[in-house]
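Notes, Module 5: Reading structure tokens.

Key idea: the token line is not a picture. It is a compressed description, and you learn to read it the same way you learned to read a sequence, by spotting repeated patterns. We will look at two proteins. The first is printed below with its tokens.
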Amino acid sequence: MKDLILASSSKRRLDLLKQINIQPGLVIPADIDETPLKNELPKDYSIRMAKNKADKVHSSNPNCFVLGVDTVVACGRRILPKAENIEQAEKCLRLLSGRRHRVYTSICLLTPNRLKQHIKTVVTIVKFKRLSELEIKYYLESEEWKNRAGGCNMQGLAGMFVLFLRGSYSSVIGLPLHETYCLLSNYFKLLESVT
């Protein structure tokens, strides 16, 4: 798929695409301002980020398909940050402990010459167990929280805190596979005969 660019630096997203046999021709991280707007709702923020990432990369590659993706962890209307330090990570963990929260992942596909723009958002509800002080300390010491939305690496240790998940597991990790497959299959031949 040499005409497809993934506008993300996330290795997890690349691995998820490979899981469904999609190999982008290029991976170009989009360097954009990710500051939420005042009173911006989590879903709106997720859509805006995915769109801005796709727009930024597409502006330099107008003849390609560009896939922008953004994942947001939210408690009610509160957008949790990508944890950059241990204090942020601890604050997120304590907020998520024993509660339901939502994970919004938006995908934005721009077609060559911007003839079409497709945007899809997947919402997944996750509930964490009530975390003990020892569990919080153990997780923080692992440093798996670094640069993760809401300080949580669901593929790693944070997975053991999940009481239930309603929605898309792959979306929580960073890319809703079913929706991405459906979107891309409109433009690319994704299934090849094995005979």
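Here is the second protein, with the sequence above and the tokens below, as before.
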Amino acid sequence: MEKAVVTLEKGSECCSWNYSGQRMATGSNDGTLSIFDSPDSSSFSALRLTSRWKAHQGSIMKAVWVPPEYGDAVACICVDGTLSLWEEIEEDTQPLTWKLCKLFESNATHALDLKFGMSSTCLKLVAAYSDGYVKVYELLDPLELKKWQLQAEFQNVIDSVSRFGKPSCLSASVAWNPRRGEGQQSSFILGFNSDLSQVNSSKVWEFDEVHQRWLPVAELALPGDRGDRVYDVAWAPNIGRPYEVVAVATSKGIAIWHLGLNPDTDGRLSVKKVALLSGHDGEVWQLEWDMSGMTLATVGSDGMVRLWQSNLNGVWHEQAALESS
């Protein structure tokens, strides 16, 4: 029998789950950030509110936990595009409290999405902005979450020589490669929902250690799909497959892609579109893989949560459809 672990208050806009500590962060339309904790961190049980504070003046649209290896901290994006990082700290004999750790400057552009990724050397943060650009930050000191350095800034286009105009982006989606093997290059997928076709299509960016720069190594779009607006992307965990699996949601449905592991002589990775999943009535809002990378959960504007799996022959099918009560 299913049992609710927490009921969110009216006005909640987003939530983020911390699996290592059985904690949840939620953002509200009044700018409040709330933390819920489980009395027993070793098992699923009812969550209780432990902290709540005013993080922004406007609505909080996204909250993301920092990887647990780097402490207890949450990054959030406000409706005005502000990107901030909040850390739970203990001072002397005072109880644990949450304080502003870092406010990332963005000038006139708005942050749309952010994700943390771990490389062999440091923690990275990639943030996508309303002008079609992405910024990659590096944590300079693993013990000081306030010390970040801008490593790179570039537009989501394949042809780095050409200069495109600044698009108007409604949303963006970032997904890091979850593999952390030794010698594994840092890489992530980036897609936009904008009015500039060259920026929209999902592209895989990989860090070139030799030249210390980010390079586009694959584009997850067929020739006729490259201008499609991207709503969300999700990179599946790999438990031994000879290829990566990536899901991309556009107005045409949810595309499942196979991404090669070994680059060709030009440094590009092979891509193959293996399925196009349709079932949601309207826009797909979010994609999430399970920890095995075998089941994909999708949420759409139709209020449905759908679960997808492929059979032994590689044919994808809808396994279940859940309707919110």
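Summary for the second protein:
- The chain has a mean pLDDT of 90.
- The radius of gyration is 20 Å.
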